[in-house]
Structure formats: C-alpha cells, structure tokens
C-alpha cells in the first residue's frame, strides 16, 4: 500500500513512512521519556533503510549518546586543528609518472586516535557539518598542491550535501584564488548518488563548476545506481571504477568483463578511466592491459601524510610498462 504512487498536479508523488515504537512501561513511564525513546527508534528505523519500523531498546540510547559525543567533537575538530588530509598517488599508466593525488580526510581525535572518513562523513552529512568540513578540505588541498610539481593535480571528494550548497562555486573560487593553484590542477570527485535527486539541477551545477576550470570525475563508478544516461548528459573528464570490481580480479569472469566494458565505454566517450583499489601486481597488469589511463591503490601507495607524499613524489621513478611485464 505504502509504495503506491499518487498523481498530484501531473506529478508522480511517492509517500513513505518509517515508524519508531516505544511501549509503556518497558520503554518509559512518562510521556517525555516515551516520546524521546520512540524518536530514537524512529531514527534507527530510518538508518536501517527507511520504510521500516523499529522498537526501542536500550542499545539505541547508548548509540545515540555515542553519536552526540562524536558530533560534539566534530563540531570543534576544525578549530582544534584535528583534521588532516592524506594524499594517495594516482599513477598515469602511459607516462609512468604520478599524475595526481586524491585528498582523503582523517580526523585525529584526541582520545580515539585517527578516525577514517567512513566513521564520520555520514554524521557530518546528517548534521550539516560537512559544509564547513568540505570548505576546509578544498582550501587545505589546494594549498598543499601548490607545493607539488606543477604537473601533479589534486582530487577532492564532494559529498552530495556540499553539492546542493549554493556557496560551493564561491568556495572553490576562493580556494583557488588564495592558494594560487591553477584551476586545471583541481579535480572534483562526485558519486553517482549526486545525480539521484534533481538531475536537471545537478547537471547545471556540474556545468557551472566545470567552467571554473576544475576537472570533474565520477567516483566509485558501478556501485550505486549506475544509470548510464548521465554519462551522455554530462561530459565527465574521468570515471573511477569502484574498487569492488578490481578486488575480484583475477578469477572473477564477470568483474573482468565489467572492468573491460567500462574502459571501452570510457574510451568511446572520451573520458579517462582510473581503476581504483589496485592492490597487487596482477591487478595492475590487468588494468594496464585493458588500457586504463590511471591506477590508484595500495600497489602504488597507501594514502600518505603531506610530508610523506612530498617525499614519495620526489623519489618516484617513472616507468612506462607494468612492472609485471618486465
Ligand atoms: P573514495 O573517494 O573512493 O576513496 C578511496 C578509498 O579507498 C580511500 O578510503 C582509500 O584509502 C581506499 N583505498 C585506496 N586504495 C585502496 C586499495 O588498494 N585497497 C583498499 N582496500 N582500499 C583502498 P578512505 O580514505 O577510508 O575514504 C573512504 C571514503 O570516504 C572515500 O572513498 C570518500 O568517499 C570518503 N571521503 C574521504 N575523504 C573525504 C572528504 O574529504 N570529503 C568527502 N565528502 N568524502 C571523503
Ligand atoms: Mg574519491
Ligand atoms: Mg572511489
């Protein structure tokens, strides 16, 4: 019943519901407590994937306190200087040189140590903190890249929430201006999810960003909604094939075929292809043999702190063939 669409003013409208349940006396004995616990259960139901119901249990309270603590910490992470960018090199397969690096955010938490983005980006998105975090990332990445050789670009990940911020273009412009980084040395990585909400508006924003000079990459390609229509509607500069496909190479016929097909498609569309998550020489050899333009993964290097990345590129010796081919 809940999945049936309505036609309203010639528009198709879907209505969904998530339900949080708290029962007296087990889950509380006064209205305030019951409502709060039902709200926690509702929040958990939404996190579970929406369109579901969830009964309150005490573990939800612990998870909520934990989340609040993390949110509070994240709120002050910028001013407390706890954020840090790591840089992961991308190898240009034709020249054998490092063509760019992806800036990857880390949070140096005073008590918990280094927290990876998977543990705080969605919290930052839910709370809107991603806007301030994202501004910090763009500024810091542009600034750092000015210390690298002029032919190495920097790639920054953009969250869908940042993408709907009308101030994004101004943030990018200000970061380029204050750092002095040439705009063509900046790459913006977006994921397929961005194109889900309002495709018209998204394509317009992407087009406007592109006229500012940065390259636009489609990140984690093949994992999300994989509609090919937007590839025909927007000229992405790069497509990054998600690491889940490469992880199963060699051995998995389907993944091998998919990587091959995406690289062939990229060539026809004039979009450069990066293969992500290359961990072994064998995967590297495969990606190069398929004709991809760049590889990224632990086989070349893990993400590095700024000073280590500078040392890495200073020592890098270009090679033109996969090392396995020697
Ligand atoms: P991503 O943009 O797809 O970044 C690549 C992720 O794969 C990074 O994880 C990187 O450390 C990891 N990786 C690279 N090579 C390999 C490999 O060979 N094997 C394996 N197993 N992993 C590899 P990380 O740094 O934990 O970042 C995870 C995700 O968090 C990123 O995925 C990106 O979506 C998001 N993220 C990171 N930094 C930012 C940021 O500044 N802003 C936003 N909005 N998202 C960010
Ligand atoms: Mg990325
Ligand atoms: Mg990726």
Could you give a short description of this structure?
The protein is α/β, with parallel strands linked by helices.
Q: Could you say which small molecules are bound to this protein?
A: ligand C2E, magnesium ion
Helix content: 40-55%
Give me the CATH superfamily of the largest domain. EAL domain
Number of domains: 2
Q: Based on CA inertia axes, which overall geometry fits?
A: globular
Assembly of the depicted chains: single chain
The span between the termini is 62 Å
β-strand percent reads 15-25%
The sequence of SSEs as H and E is: EEEHEHEEEHHEHHEHEHEHHEHEEH
Q: From the 3D coordinates, which CATH architecture of the largest domain would you assign?
A: Alpha-Beta Barrel
Arithmetic mean pLDDT: 90
What is the SS-derived class? alpha/beta
Radius of gyration: 22 Å
Reading side by side through the largest sheet, how are the strands ordered? 5-6-8-9-10-11-12-13
User: DSSP helix count?
Assistant: 12
Number of strands: 14
Would you tell me which CATH topology of the largest domain applies?
Answer: TIM Barrel
Largest beta-sheet characterization = 8 strands, mixed, barrel
The CATH class of the largest domain is identified as: Alpha Beta
Stretches where pLDDT is under 50 for at least 5 consecutive residues are none
Characterize the structure shown.
The structure is a single chain. With 326 residues, the chain is an alpha/beta fold. It folds into two domains: 6-57, no CATH class; 81-325, EAL domain (TIM Barrel, Alpha-Beta Barrel), CATH 3.20.20. The protein has twelve helices and 14 strands. Strand 1 and strand 2 form a beta hairpin. The chain starts with 5 loop residues before the first strand and ends in an 11-residue tail after the last helix. Ligand C2E binds at residues 88, 104-105, 116-118, 121, 137, 157, 159, 189, 219-220, 243, 277-279, 296-298, 303.
């Amino acid at each position: 019943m809940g999945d049936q669409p309505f036609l309203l003013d010639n528009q198709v409208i879907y209505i969904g519901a998530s339900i949080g349940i708290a029962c007296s006396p087990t889950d509380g004995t006064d209205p305030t407590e019951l409502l709060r616990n039902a709200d926690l259960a509702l929040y958990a139901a939404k996190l579970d994937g929406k369109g579901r119901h969830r009964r309150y249990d005490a573990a939800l309270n612990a998870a909520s306190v934990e989340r609040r603590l993390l949110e509070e910490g994240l709120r002050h992470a910028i001013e407390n200087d706890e954020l840090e960018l790591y840089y992961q090199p991308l190898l240009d397969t034709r020249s054998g040189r490092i063509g760019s690096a992806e800036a990857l955010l880390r949070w140096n938490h005073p008590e918990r140590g280094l927290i990876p983005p998977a543990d705080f980006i969605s919290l930052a998105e839910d709370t809107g903190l991603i806007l301030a975090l994202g501004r910090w990332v763009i500024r810091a990445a542009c600034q750092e890249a000015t210390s690298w050789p002029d032919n190495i670009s920097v790639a920054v990940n953009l969250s869908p929430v940042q993408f709907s911020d009308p101030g994004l273009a101004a943030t990018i412009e200000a970061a380029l201006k204050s750092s002095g980084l040439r705009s063509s040395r900046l790459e913006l990585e977006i994921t397929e999810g961005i194109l889900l909400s309002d495709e018209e508006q998204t394509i317009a924003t992407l087009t406007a960003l592109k006229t500012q000079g940065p390259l636009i990459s489609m990140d984690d390609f093949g994992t999300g909604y994989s509609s090919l229509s937007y590839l025909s509607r927007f000229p992405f500069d790069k497509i990054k094939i998600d690491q889940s496909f490469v992880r199963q190479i060699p051995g998995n016929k389907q993944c091998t075929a998919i990587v091959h097909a995406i690289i062939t498609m990229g060539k026809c569309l004039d979009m450069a292809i990066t293969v992500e998550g290359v961990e072994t020489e064998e995967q590297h050899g495969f990606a190069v043999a398929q004709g991809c333009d760049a590889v990224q993964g632990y086989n070349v290097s893990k993400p590095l702190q700024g000073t280590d990345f500078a040392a890495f590129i200073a020592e890098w010796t270009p090679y033109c063939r996969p090392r396995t081919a020697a």
